[in-house]
Structure to design on (239 residues):
């Protein structure tokens, strides 16, 4: 019986020692974590480059248990819209994705903890597609011409203008285009790096005495001509 009591006493002491050591280890890990956290400033981390049409991570670097939230300003709602709200649950940075479809500046605000107010900042989003502006045309086998334009940046309500010579009958533009004297015009929202094509037929009245007659002379976006060395006037011969 004495041996049994002795064995139980030894086991009890061992268990208490183990629990104590385990507690000390947990406390030590907690202290180490708190020391590490204290050396890292509480921060809201945004990407250095934010491109359209791609998700990007926005991260909170805060202690476990901290309440965090982020909001975006919505012009349509005329109010702030919650995009993230959580209490940090582990040692890693707390991140959430945001994606923007249109380039521009966005107003974002974030809040860390319950006693702090919101901090505002501007998020700049750009179109990261790498392309150069270009304009060209190609004569097709059926005598029509296909015009191609690629913008290098987004433009809202851009005025697209084709200029033709007088006495030229133009077909190929739909009813959304306006005939304004010698031009065909249309307001469009242009997206950077997208390809825009227009195929048109041009018939020249050859009543004049000139053997060669211009039929197309210019292409403009707003008031800026996009003609280049490879796109001279299109000329039709008059026999």
């Amino acid at each position: 019986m004495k041996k049994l009591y002795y064995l139980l006493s030894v086991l009890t002491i061992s268990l208490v020692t183990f629990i104590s050591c385990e507690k000390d280890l947990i406390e030590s890990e907690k202290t180490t974590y708190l020391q590490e956290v204290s050396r890292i400033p509480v921060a809201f981390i945004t990407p250095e480059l934010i491109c359209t049409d791609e998700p990007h991570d926005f991260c909170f670097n805060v202690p476990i248990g901290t309440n965090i939230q982020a909001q975006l300003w919505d012009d349509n709602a005329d109010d702030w819209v919650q995009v993230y709200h959580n209490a940090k649950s582990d040692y890693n940075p707390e991140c959430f994705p945001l994606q923007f479809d249109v380039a521009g500046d966005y107003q974002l605000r974030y809040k860390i903890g319950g006693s702090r107010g919101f901090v505002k900042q501007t998020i700049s989003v750009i179109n990261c597609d790498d392309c150069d502006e270009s304009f060209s045309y190609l004569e097709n086998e059926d005598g029509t011409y296909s015009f191609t334009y690629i913008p290098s940046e987004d433009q809202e309500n851009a005025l697209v203008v084709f200029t033709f010579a007088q006495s030229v009958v133009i077909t190929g533009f739909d009813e959304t285009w306006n005939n304004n004297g010698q031009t065909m015009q249309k307001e469009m929202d242009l997206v950077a790096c997208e390809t825009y094509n227009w195929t048109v037929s041009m018939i020249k009245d050859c009543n004049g005495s000139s053997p060669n007659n211009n039929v197309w002379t210019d292409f403009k976006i707003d008031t800026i001509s996009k003609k280049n060395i490879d796109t001279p006037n299109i000329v039709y011969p008059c026999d």
Summary: Residues 33 and 216 are 73 Å apart (CA to CA). The helical segments are 2-39. The chain is about 15% helix and 45% strand. The first strand starts at residue 43 and ends at 45.
